[in-house]
Amino acid sequence: NPTPIAFSELYMALQTGTVDGQDNPLPTVQSAKFYEVTKSITITNHLVDSVWPTINEAKWQSLSENQKNIVLEALEEARIVCDETNLGREAELIEFFKSEGLSVYNADIDAFSEQVLAKYLDNKTMTATWDLEIFEKVQELGK
User: Fold this and answer.
1) Could you state, in order of their start, the residue ranges of all structural domains in the chain?
2) Taking the complete model, does pTM exceed 0.85, yes or no?
3) pLDDT tens by residue, the chain, 143 residues
4) Where would a tag sit more exposed on the chain, N or C end, judged by fewer CB atoms within 10 A?
């Protein structure tokens, strides 16, 4: 069963066996040194570090169409660099964790996704508030 632990207490909880696992992006596993008190990592690619650009709606609306286009083009360029950087960094971290003695496993994502998706879709309480049209669009993007 999941055990809620404050992030500030997670290292000690792993070290003492209060919990036997945690779920964080790989850079966090390194920076928080969770690898020191963990024996293995399973790569699921469901949780990655990311950058979320934001702008105040009033400020966005005050920009000209040309300015908006410049911002959107710059964001797309930055997204590409960020994606490449994150993927490269995660590959380096996997090698780092292996060098620290951790076993690194790759989850069978397709099998996991099929099982989890079926459970969600069967649970009407879970999906009652979902916009299924948007859900289907997101599913298509993942193919």
Assistant:
1) 7-107, 109-143
2) no
3) 789 999 999 999 999 999 999 999 899 999 999 999 999 999 988 766 667 889 999 999 999 999 999 999 999 999 899 888 888 899 999 999 999 999 999 999 889 888 888 888 898 888 889 898 998 998 888 77
4) N
